[in-house]
Amino acid sequence: MLKAFVAVVALTLSLNLATAQSIEDATNAYNRGVELAASDLPKAVEALLQAASIAEKAGPEAQEILTLSRQQVPVLQYNHATALYKEKKIDEAITNFELAHNYAVEFGDNGIQAKADDLLPKLYRVKGNNEYKAGKYIEALESFEKALGYDPDFAGAHLSKGLVYNKQNKNDEMKAAMDAAIEAGLKTNDSKTVEQARKFMSDNLIVDANAAFKKNDFNATVEMLNESVKYSESNPEAFYLFAVAYNKLSRWDDAIATAEKGMALEENTPAKQARFHFEIGMAQAGKGSTGDACASFKKAAVGPLAESANYQIKTVLKCS
């Protein structure tokens, strides 16, 4: 019986000594991490993770070291990622912000998690834009998707996806991405991105409308212009092309109405207004309103259209 008691005492002393040794090791690792934080953040994080691991195994007596180590890890990892970002090492910064995110989740640091989650989508967009500029469209799309994985309402990432799809001549995907950019931008009050997406789609559709016009497909021209002005009604080019196409289709009233809208948007100088007056004159002549047409062609007889307008005045309509 005595021998058994002695054995129990010896075992208890051994366990106590082992625990004390573990706490000392954890403390030393923690102190080393704190010291390294001033000069080498990655090694500081490594030391603090080691301290936390040792402290966790040591039990309740090492709880303070465990708590302190876990508190420091996400912060130092985030600071290291920030330093890399300032050095414009985007790929490395992303990797380390993701580590900061993971440590923050594991150790319950909501503040660092929120900061990392705010920066990561922006960094993935920067990475994707760089890949886009380098012609690496597949890689760019992957980066934008990762950005949207962190923030589905990131209007800028949707916009950038649309630009990639445009380069790939994927019109349906481009439209979907630009529409998503507009929807997300309206939701998050990102008016700049909303305007960029709307302008891009409007301008792109005007280009398509011009191509259809050159093929004498005037109905398709009008159809594309109708889509264009759904995105933006601020481009006088759209309304000028509307007027020309409507005149080709003998839709005189529509030609006059769209030309007048274009004039209101265009710079108010005789030279800039002349082309709209010319199309209004053509529509009025088509309707048989010779007097009104003569007045419009006289206003159109400025700059490049002067010869055509004077021909209508003198030869076609024989204006007085």
TrEMBL record:
Keywords: Repeat, Signal, TPR repeat. The keyword Repeat applies. InterPro entries: TPR-like_helical_dom_sf (IPR011990), TPR_rpt (IPR019734), Ycf3 (IPR050498). Pfam families: ANAPC3, TPR_11. It comes from the Bacteria. Residues 1-20 form the signal peptide. TPR repeats lie at residues 121-154. PANTHER family: TETRATRICOPEPTIDE REPEAT PROTEIN 6, UDP-N-ACETYLGLUCOSAMINE--PEPTIDE N-ACETYLGLUCOSAMINYLTRANSFERASE SPINDLY-RELATED. This is Protein containing TPR repeat. It comes from Lentimicrobium saccharophilum.
